[in-house]
Specification:
8-stranded mixed β-sheet; 20 strands; single chain; binds (S)-3-Hydroxyhexanoyl-CoA; 4 domains; 2-enoyl-CoA Hydratase, Chain A, domain 1; Rossmann fold
Length: about 700
């Protein structure tokens, strides 16, 4: 065996050279990996006893792409193109042996090999789009030449990881090897290439499929239409499409030039920087400083949910979906039956859309039972209380849980507003109490705020985080404070939105600014959707806010076809002249002089205080890191991924110094709502980033 460099070895099996790459964790194409490929293939070509070359990886996966951490740094060693050219121009056939995932630059390397062999469990994909990029190493030109432009559009714009058996059908993979016997399978395939005298197949020269699509621009226009809604605001999907158009309409080298240019624009742009930030943030968020990652967890084999309402039902579905039995406890049979009925209906609707099978409906509903007796919770490992927000009621429930639940069980509350320390104070085992704040609809929304109270044990925290992963949520560990992280930041925006409409803006002006920024909807459209009467009490209502006035008029949002907006029978909204008049009269009545409010002011008033609040949250230790706050806002509130989350946006796009200056300016003119966080002042004074401050 010859060592090529620290990550690559070369071993001959008869006349087949096996190049074996080992660069944990995912064999990403760092400088040593590129060098290993370049020098390894060169050495195998130079060895006259070698007739064919197999490129295989050790560890959990084939090459998973370019090394994302290297972007923006000065490149060293052979470029990826040089390594690829060495492979593609080899006079001896090179066979890629794929297990795990061949992604991005990894698949692009495999596409310069003359053949590809994979185990059935392997997956191939060009997921660059998810990093705000496009495949920049010839992938946009080679993939359509194998699978055709339509399949390439799908793969590149969704970033899907395509299973090897499907790749075999599309021609992306030439042969499947037996699971667990990839090396032998790839070597055997190489021998077959030699014995059958198969040609040195270069994907770049195979033009049939791209030529067939020439003169059919509808392939692209139809595809653009089909993704428009989902990809609103993102640059990368469109750039990927343009590259495939180039593959169809231009010779290979010219197509590569288009790819180079567009890749260059994306990789140096704000969107990709934000999306790469999110990639790492999604992985950081699970890491809890101070808790050993190997801490023993509490086995969760059965879950109890208290409350069969919308929240309780949605939460239950998460566990049933993961195969975990659930018992739902309600006070009375009628609401329990109603809740169970809604769950069944939800599953049936999903099955009608073809997303799950009829059998799945039965299996999942079969995992959810109901009871009106709290004693049914006695054998549960985790109990989540999801009743309405009232401290006395919740404390009463927790007292009972303390009596009923087995030792070691986790006692969780889904409160979004109440002090979990107060809830924990009524039990003899406060270390077992934690907040699991699901977002509505709980079976759909990915975010889970795991709320650590003062006495919550490490085991309970670690188990909750692991469980979140099991039920396919993304969890952020946060501390107890009003609104926790997500709603606490939201409150800042809501307050300003309400003030702005009294000072001169209209609800649709505010909504437009935030929608154009990339949020799914603005605060007023959101209120209409949720129902303006959420938490509104008719008997106490005295026209003290616009919302009260609207509710008193029975304008309660979408459900009454009228709220801040008017709605037609298809729920399409239009600005309401009635509401405009109400707002103007309200301002007048409260002696607020209306004025022109610019879009810039709307944006700054709504967003800067959110960033400032995020900094306060960090200062108080209620979130571990700035990027955790970004994860909360992206997954719980629809902050656009391509803007990286409010903290990333504040730091990397606006600049914390500018946020501070604006907050100070607003503080002077608009009052203490804009008081800057002490930490923000500190950071700006010291010129430090969140990372440098340990956040
Ligand atoms: C590209 O290829 C551009 C080219 O077209 C053009 C070039 C000119 N780089 O996800 P995991 C780290 S763009 C650096 O937890 P899993 C990750 O941060 C790239 N680091 O494991 C984590 O670190 P830590 C296109 C990377 O088993 C550790 O590896 N490729 C990279 O659940 C384990 O990751 C992609 O977009 C990377 N490329 O999933 C694929 N990838 O332990 C991105 C991972 O410190 N990667 N790390 O937190 C993935 O989708 C998943 O990591 C993968 C494994 C499916 C491979």
């Amino acid at each position: 065996m010859t060592k090529i460099n620290d990550v690559m070895t070369l071993e001959n099996e008869g006349d087949i050279a096996v190049l074996s790459l080992n660069s944990p964790p995912v064999n990403a194409l760092s400088a040593p990996v590129r060098e290993g490929i370049f020098e390894g293939v060169k050495a195998a070509i130079a060895d006259t006893s070698v007739k064919a070359i197999v490129l295989i990886c050790e560890g959990r996966t084939f090459i998973a792409g370019a090394d994302i951490t290297e972007f923006g740094k000065k490149p060293v060693g052979p470029s990826l193109f040089e390594a690829q050219d060495m492979i593609e121009n080899s006079s001896k056939p090179v066979i890629a042996a794929i297990h795990g995932t061949a992604l991005g630059g990894g698949l692009e390397v495999a596409l310069t090999c003359h053949y590809r062999v994979a185990v059935p469990s392997a997956k191939c994909g060009l997921p660059e789009v998810n990093l705000g990029l496009l495949p920049g190493a010839g992938g946009t030109q080679r993939l359509p030449r194998i699978v055709g432009p339509e399949a390439a559009l799908q793969m590149m714009v969704t970033g899907a990881h395509v299973p090897a058996p499907v790749c075999l059908k599309t021609g992306l993979v030439d042969s499947l090897a037996e699971e667990g016997a990839l090396r032998a399978g790839a070597v055997a395939f190489a021998q077959k290439v030699l014995s059958d005298g198969l040609p040195l197949k270069k994907v770049r020269d195979s033009n049939e499929k791209v030529e067939a699509a020439r003169g059919k621009p509808e392939i692209f226009s139809d595809f653009r239409k089909s993704i428009a809604r989902k990809t609103r605001g993102f640059l990368a999907p469109e750039y990927n499409i343009q590259c495939i158009e180039a593959a169809v309409n231009l010779p290979f080298d010219e197509g590569v030039a288009v790819e180079r240019k567009l890749f260059g624009e994306l990789v140096t742009g704000e969107q990709s920087a934000a999306q790469r930030h999110v990639f790492f943030a999604e992985r950081q968020v699970w890491k809890i400083p101070g808790i050993d990652k190997d801490i023993p967890l509490i086995p969760i084999n059965k879950v109890g949910i208290i409350g069969a309402g919308t929240m309780g039902g949605g939460i239950s579905m998460n566990f049933a979906n993961a195969g975990i039995p659930v018992v739902i406890v309600e006070r009375d049979q009628a609401p329990l039956d109603r809740g169970l009925g809604v769950i069944r209906k939800n599953y049936e609707n999903t099955a009608a859309k073809g997303r799950i099978s009829a059998d799945d409906v039965e299996t999942r509903t079969g995992l959810i039972s109901g009871s009106t007796d709290m004693n049914a919770l006695a054998d549960c490992d985790l109990i989540i209380e999801a009743v309405f927000e009232n401290m006395d009621v919740k404390q009463d429930i927790f007292r009972k849980l303390d009596e009923i639940c087995k030792e070691g069980a986790i006692l969780a509350t889904n409160t979004s507003a109440l002090d979990i320390n107060e809830i924990a104070s009524v039990v003899k085992r406060p270390e077992a109490v934690i907040g699991l704040h699901f977002f509505s609809p709980a079976n759909v929304m990915r975010l889970l705020e795991v709320v650590r109270a003062d006495k919550t044990s490490d085991t309970v925290i670690a188990t909750s985080m692991a469980l979140a992963k099991r039920i396919k949520k993304i969890a952020a560990l946060v501390g107890v404070c009003p609104g926790f992280v997500g709603n606490r930041i939201l409150a800042q925006r809501q307050r300003e939105a309400q003030k702005l409409i009294l000072e001169g803006a209209m609800p649709w002006d505010v909504d437009k600014v935030l929608f154009d920024f990339g949020l799914p909807m603005g605060p007023f459209a959101m209120s209409d959707l949720a129902g303006l009467d959420l938490g509104w009490q008719a008997d106490k209502s005295n026209s003290s806010t616009i919302r009260e006035v609207l509710c008193e008029m029975d304008r309660r949002g979408q459900k009454t076809s009228a709220g801040f907006y008017d709605y037609d029978e298809n729920r399409k909204s239009t600005p309401s002249p009635v509401v405009a008049k109400i707002i103007e009269e309200f301002s007048e009545k409260h002696q607020i002089k209306r004025r022109e409010v610019s879009q810039e002011e709307i944006f700054e008033r709504c967003v800067y205080p959110m960033i400032n609040e995020g900094v306060k949250i960090l200062e108080e230790g209620k979130a571990i890191r700035a990027s955790d706050i970004d994860i909360v806002w992206i997954n719980g509130y629809g902050w656009p991924v391509y803007r990286g989350g409010p903290m990333h946006y504040g730091e990397k796009v606006i600049g914390l110094d500018k946020v501070l200056a604006k907050m100070k300016e607003f503080e002077k003119t608009l009052g203490p709502d804009f008081k800057p966080a002490a930490l923000l002042e500190d950071m700006v004074a010291q010129g430090k980033s969140f990372a440098q401050m340990g956040y």
